[in-house]
Amino acid sequence: MKSNILLMLTIAGTLAACSSTPTSVVDLKHIGEEEVIQTYGKDDSLKQAQPFLVESGMVVSTGFVSMNSDGNRPEAAIKMAQIHARAELAKSISVKIENFAQLADEGTSAESVQLRSIATETAKLTANELRPGKVYYEKVRVVSDSGVPRSEIRAWAQVEIPENSFRRHVMDAIRGQAGKTSFSKEFAATVDSNWKKILGSDQAKDATAKVEAPAEHKPASVTPQATEEE
Prior knowledge:
It is a single chain. The protein is of the alpha+beta class. The chain has a domain at 51-140 and 153-200: Thiol Ester Dehydrase, Chain A (Roll). The protein is 42% helix and 21% strand. The protein has 7 helices and 5 strands. It has helices spanning 2-20, 74-103, 113-126, 163-177, 187-193, 195-199, 224-229; strands at 34-40, 52-55, 58-68, 131-143, 149-162. A hairpin with a 2-residue loop joins strand 2 (52-55) and strand 3. The longest helix has 30 residues, at 74-103. Mean pLDDT is 75; it is low at 15-23, 203-208 and 217-230.
């Protein structure tokens, strides 16, 4: 009888001890708060970097990724951010070509097969020339909406390519689509003549933008002297 009583008391004490020890920490006072607990890289300006940028003769694309830190290494997050940067590069040129096509009255849209083909082909052609650029990551403690803290890795990474190489690949991709359904054969030449405007174009139908005809299509200027001779 005594042994049964002792056993029951032991079990009760164990259950009480277990019930008083929470299985996970809940922090209801700091829901939504974040704390950076580790960083890598000296330049945190990548957090505000544009996805597509032309600077000092280089085309630079920035990618971002966030993942749970459990079982994931920072190197994996940086690799994923670089992959996202490559995708951003193709996406940006697709959008800019669409904007320019609308301005040039080519009558295409962002969903056209030609635009997707140009972006895909550009990505293929630039793949071997894209080089890793700056990287930056943070390990952040985040208190979720349920009050349970978790840690995640946020990584930013850049890839870059010389502008002249990038321009050549984009033009090759466009020429491959010229004359197919939407784009006219003259469109590639028009894009080449307006390259700087395309890189700086972020809005379709920009009222201040003007499409210039390719040099070989511009009418020759007539000087007063030539007119008199005629």
